[in-house]
Description:
By secondary structure, the protein is an alpha/beta fold. Helices cover 45% and strands 10% of the residues.
Amino acid sequence: MGNLDSSVSPRQLVLALDHAESFAREDFLAGPSNAAALTLMDRWPDWPDRIVALIGPEGSGKSHLAAIWAQAAGARVLAAKLLPDIDLPTALATGALVLEDLEFAGLDERALFHLINLAREEGAFVLITSRSPLATFPVAIRDLASRLRALPSVALAAPDDALLRSLIVKLAADRQLVVDEALVNYLVNRIERSFAGARAALARLDEEAMRQHRPVTRALAAELFRDQPA
Length: 230
């Protein structure tokens, strides 16, 4: 076993670790912003169409919802960027597929068109996640454009105060941080009102607390986020 590089500090080693996030159904934080999407996942196979889209900003819970559905449906999960390189019949072999993070940039229109057509032919279920409504994709293939416009979709909205508080507590627990009500309330009123904003805020607090060898408190948060409007 080789020796650790002496130039790497313990703090750098800690920061290099991933903070595991559970995608189990019981760990999903439900609220008004995601109620419609969660209901749709739980309604399966009673869907309005066999192919549906789940739309929401980065970090809004799309992957967690997709994992919940994949577990229930026995679905395979495929990163959309890999679509041109995979065997479509194999991808649909279980009768259910998650196509994750579909975006127009770099989209292989023909591969997506073939996937949708094959899924229709085989009666497979497909859940497509994306940050942008699929109907807005400026695709060149007319038949693909019409198919994307016809797909039912459900959107994830920004979290309300209660959900944002719960999210901050969960993200802190994922990082093994203890947070009190004063800190949570301060962050809710100072950070960007989004899932991504909460993640970024907890990461920044964690890193600064380790750098200064201090606990994660409201006082530390005030030093980091005082310039952000309440």
